[in-house]
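Reply to dn_fold:

You asked what the input looked like. This is it:
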Amino acid sequence: MNWTGFSSAAPELAKITEERFGSYRHHVLATLRADGSPRTSGLEVRFLHGELWLGMMPGSLKALDLRRDPRFTLQSNPGDGTDMGGGDIRISGRACEVGEGAAKAAYVKEVEPPQPFHLFRTELTEVVRTYVEDDTYLVAQVWKPGEPVRTLRRT
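and this is what came back:
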């Protein structure tokens, strides 16, 4: 499911997620190395034309990881201090590389990234927001395709 599908299925969580990722420029991308171990890398993301886009330098290890195994997790920047600025958000899914064509041209026109670069469109498999409510509860909102948002509270 792409970003538009997620936004339709869970509009409130999608809005909060876009705001959270829009609050900071850099976030953390987790990919899988060839040996199966995790790799974390800094990354900028864009929400454009109904998609969540991941752009990367040519030949970067994270891009090579995604070409080999498209699974990823994207962690929002925790922000300054320890207040988590509205919560911690994690997006998981699969990244699909976009070759030359209309979609990449539209992205280039809007973003003007340094050339050349890798561009990946995302297919979401899970979005999780974790935050503290009333200084009492740890709250997790969990969304998966085809399911409503579940809210879990722990004291």
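Helices lie at 3-9, 11-22, 61-68, 102-111.
Hope that clears it up.
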